[in-house]
Amino acid sequence: MQKTKYIIMVTALIVALGGLLMGFDASVISGVVKFIEIEFELTKLELGWSVASLTLTSTLAMLMAGPLSDKYGRRAVLRAAAILYAISALGSALAPDFFTLVIARMIGGFGVGASLILAPMYIAEIAPANLRGQLVSFNQLNIVVGISLAFFTNYLILHYSQQELEWVQNFQLDQHQWRYMLGLELIPAVLYYIGLFFVPRSPRWLIMKGKRQEALKIMSKFSSLEEAEKSMAEIISSMELQPDQKEGSFKDLLKPALRLVITIGIVVAVLQQITGINSVFFYAPMIFEQSGIGTDAAFIQAILVGLVNLVFTILAILFIDKLGRKPLLTFGVAGIALSMFTLAYGFSQTTYTLKQEVVENLVLENDVYETLTPIVGTSYDSKAAFESAIQATISGDDWEIAAETLLNQSIVLNPLLILIAILAFVASFAISIGPVMWVLFSELFPNNIRGIAISFVGLINSAVSFLVQWIFPWQLEVLGSAGTFLIYGLFALLGLIFILKVVPETKGRTLEELEAMLVKEPH
What we know:
The protein is mostly helical and 523 residues long. It contains 25 helices and three strands.
């Protein structure tokens, strides 16, 4: 039994390396942008495109990866994803111009989208019911590790590139920091490709293709022969109930029998992103700076966000098969709502007071100091009122130069409350809907349409993520921090009601038992 569990764990860990590559690929660009902006003389729109282009192709990949995996197999498409990661890493590191860099990044995006949905799907199809939640969560854990690894390697490359060391000069690390940051991904990509040769094909996919003997041989590695034969009989029985559906299609997702599972999938996919997780991850320094703590402290607190995310993802893995999916979702989404309402309250109490020392430190014309003196010490209840008062006293050019300093250093609120609320939000997300969403996706859908269905809900999840990231700075500007976080909290509250009323508990049930329970064919 212990040997069987060990084989399953190792197999799941190898497949979940796709999550590490995904997290690394998506986050490594954060250390690259300031270098390529100068080297390629990019506009702000071009710079934004260098980041967003990967998300675009990963979204397209989610749409294609499921059907391709139903046709060619989960393992085969994951191998292709590993190759795409390697090509992307090498192409990005050697890119002679901006166009080539973007193309290389977009190639990597196809690998991101494929591995994001297929790794948890494959793991769910080999895992026994009592370990499935924990094993599928390995993928989310690896995503978090990949994000942290990208930040860490970026820091190391930047640190050593500034050292007067012989090997730094020999490898030209001081001249090509960003190329090394991007090229480093080649190592885990090659390891992933090699590792997948030690991973068997999905037994459920083999049964769907009529290769029952091979499927039984693989299943007997992960359990006793008796249990393998029983599981195989259940899978075959499930498929025989739908004899006309050897391979599903997108049209099948509209069938009345699938209405419940598709609805759950869509709502959970939207909920995971609409509550603002990527706004916090991608804009954490901006949010913390708005609390007036300064840039250096904001960077340190952003690192703290990453650590909390890692710790609570590990806790989710430990508890998901003991407590169940629904309790974690209920607890976590309730925590998200409470955290967002706390953030909204904290920012709603913001006032702006211009301090004398801030004015004295401004690098502006001398007469500007005299014009600002009358409003020093005056408290304003809103950002708009404060900006209007400042702009009424100094010229537009001086405002452009001093705006960020004046705003960030004049904020008066409770930064500790903001920090605690954001960390509570990240912890609530990481122990619940972050990893649990992918576990649910791997469990809810019937064998014959699992690939297509996960592609569909994954596409929705990615599209909402892109939208939230895109409009967040606009929301802060137009609605303010309080209004933005209040909206996120209201979405979380609606999601909590849906979870309590609609989402079932899937812990400890085989995929075939869940199909029988959730997919109701009309009589």
